[in-house]
């Protein structure tokens, strides 16, 4: 049973475009939660220790650091404006007291260091306490500077900037399991970077045809395997997934495995190709499975079986009859993400009307929950929601015709160890946790 923990954001204010959350990501321990928005800002929340007065609630997430990651730019050669929107954030495993994360907009990836400082040096020889330079002829004695305690300050500083490697818009970044390299993907190419080298990258996938009129598909997402640093996958707008092994060749144009589910000819329609486009692909933590999200469903694939998924979960099948209107208002092109829980036993993805869906892989049970201001009361238990597709509507059901398609949950994240989830609904970040009886 899930209960509300907290909400971050301005619930009652008009939504400014720059405040819309565009990515959500827990770090490896789950102690930090990062969000990026369309205004190029990154906000990091830190998990506070649970209080003795409220033992029923795990500690809350409070703002730890906020910084401007990207600014709007202009490409003068192409007369193209590059917006500051943060497309993806990926944390690096923590090696020391500082934290590192990668953030990217459409063109430029940045490596940020987030560190704490609670001491400052005092007693300099060549300058006064207020910073003014002292006259060297008036210095009569040598002082040893000392470190004095100060209020905790969290600093975010850019350590590397990886630019000028993508002609098209970056849709994915993924840190490799060797923790030294990462890949970045745009519509037609995937590049492999070393975290220490900013002026060059290796192009490992290039699907751009010699004649762009022959282009039939684009890359929609890519991810490194969680344990094998030579393996990665990428998905396409045609609903296929290719698994590549970098040991085979420098340019991985020839895949090692090709995952595709045969289409049922009887259900083919004008929208078939659009709704089969994969918007997200995620390896399970074990590395045995991968999950893909298309417009209407989530599929779980066994890496050892390419011809069909081992599990298929319908997210909002009731929208199949609404595809025409969804095409007209461009909602059919929305890119929903998906995520695993820490033990790979459950998966989560978003829907419309601020609904999000959770599927238990063991019991095959599923539940629809809503991120709304009604549920954002302390310890409020989330009530399952149901959508009525026609006929007589029950009391607690909502009609498919009254769904709000402007309210959509595209970005979700699951704590790597605990049953804590983060759900981005427009400009609000909702955090829910499994209720402890």
UniProtKB/TrEMBL annotation:
Question: SMART domains attached here?
Answer: WD40
Q: Does the keyword GTP-binding apply?
A: no
A single GO cellular-component term from the record reads: protein phosphatase type 2A complex
MF (Gene Ontology): protein phosphatase regulator activity
Q: Which UniProt keywords apply?
A: Repeat, WD repeat
Region Disordered: list its residue ranges: 371-394
**What InterPro entries does UniProt report for this protein, alphabetically?**
PP2A_PR55, PP2A_PR55_CS, WD40/YVTN_repeat-like_dom_sf, WD40_repeat_dom_sf, WD40_rpt
Tell me where on the tree of life, at the top rank, the source sits. Answer: Eukaryota
The UniProt similarity line reads:
Belongs to the phosphatase 2A regulatory subunit B family.
- How does this polypeptide assemble, per the annotation? PP2A consists of a common heterodimeric core enzyme, composed of a 36 kDa catalytic subunit (subunit C) and a 65 kDa constant regulatory subunit (PR65 or subunit A), that associates with a variety of regulatory subunits.
Q: What is this protein called?
A: Serine/threonine-protein phosphatase 2A 55 kDa regulatory subunit B
Species of origin = Oryzias sinensis
Highest classification ranks of the organism = Eukaryota, Metazoa, Chordata, Craniata, Vertebrata
